[in-house]
Amino acid sequence: MIWRSKAWFxxxxxxxxxxxxxxxxxxxxxxxxxxxxTPYPAEAGKFVxxxxxxxxxxxxxxxxxxxIGRDVLTRVVFGFRxxxxxxxxxxxxxxxxxxxxxxxxxxxxxxxxxxxMRTTDVFLALPPLVLALAVxxxxxxxxxxxxxxxxxxWWPWYTRLVYNLARSIRTEGFITAAEVIGASRSHILLREIxxxxxxxxxxxxxxxxxxxxxIGASLSFLGLGVQPPTPxxxxxxxxxxxxLPDLWWIPVFPGIAVLVLVLGFNLLGDGLxxxxxxxx
Length: 280
What we know:
By secondary structure, the chain is mainly α. It has helices spanning 2-12, 15-32, 34-37, 72-108, 110-125, 128-136, 143-169, 173-180, 185-221, 233-241, 249-276. It is elongated and about 75 Å long.
C-alpha cells in the first residue's frame, strides 16, 4: 500500500498527467452513457430533419446541426464510441501478438530471432497510414476492416519494444537461476521476463491509443473507415469540410474532439511513463 501511495503522489504532482486522466475518463464515460447523456440520441443513426438543418450553435444545439438536421454534439459523443472502440480492439489484438513475437525473438535468439525481426523490419519500413491504405484497398470499407488494417500495421511496434527489453533481461541473474533449476522456456518467458516488460507495454499502449484513434479518423476522413450513417469523427470532419467557412461548426467540433482525445491519451501516457520510469 505504501508504494501505491507514493506512486499516486508522484503521478498527482504532474498537472498535465491529471488533465490527461480527466480527459480520458470523461471521454470513456460519455461513450458508455451516450444514449442517456446526449440531448438527441435518435439523431446518432438514420435521421433527417431539414426544418432544423444547418443551424449554428445555440442553447438548443450547442454544436449546431449538420446539413440534414442532425445534432452535431450528439454525433460527436457517439463518435467517441467508435474511436475508443477502434483503439481498444486494435491494441487488444496487436499488443499480444507483438509481445509474444518479441519475447520469442529476444529470448530464443538464433534463426527464430532473425525470422521475426527481419519480418518486423519490413513492416516498420512502411509508413503506417500507407500500409493501412494498402490493406483496405483489397477490402470493403467498414469499421471491422478498418480495425483489421490498423492491427496489421501496429503489432511490429510491440515486437520491437519487447524484443529489446527481453534481450536485456535474459542476461539477468534471476533468468540464469531459473534456467539452472530447470524451469521451462514458457515459464521463463511468461513468468520471469514478461512481468518485467509490463510497465513499458502499459505505457506504450496508453500512448498508442491516441495514435490509433488518429489513424482511424484519417481512414474515415478518406472514406475508407466507418461508413454513414454511423457517427465517426473522421467522416464528420470530411463531410463538413466542403461547407467551410459558412458552416464552420460541422467540421470544427469533431476535429476538436479528435484533438482532445489524442491529447488526453498522450498526456496520460507521459504521466505513466514518468511514474513507471520506463523507456518507450
